[in-house]
């Protein structure tokens, strides 16, 4: 279970137990990713024979964070972050800069107006999705 599921389960259990009130517990904010130097230090301390708890106290991080860093290092033999999932950006960096400049000049420009500006430019290809037939079962 991730933290959101645990939070939802906790609120549900409190609601079932009380039957009259919903108690919402504020979750702690997420922190930024651990820097590479800190990861290298954690791995160095572990190779020296320190325990997870002592490493966590030394670097002022949670034991689970230290454990995850060590597990990822043992699997990949690297301290670098894994590639993030997600959609690959469309268009060249030049096109993205051009669109950004249009928006900076006029922050209230709509997506349709941006498309029309790009269509009028000869150097840019704008894809218009084809109409698909409606198919019912």
Automatic annotation (TrEMBL):
Domain Transposase IS30-like HTH, first and last residues per copy: 31-71
Name of one Pfam family that matches: HTH_38
Localization in the cell: Nucleus
GO cellular component: nucleus
Protein name as it appears in the record: Helix-turn-helix domain
Organism: Popillia japonica (Japanese beetle)
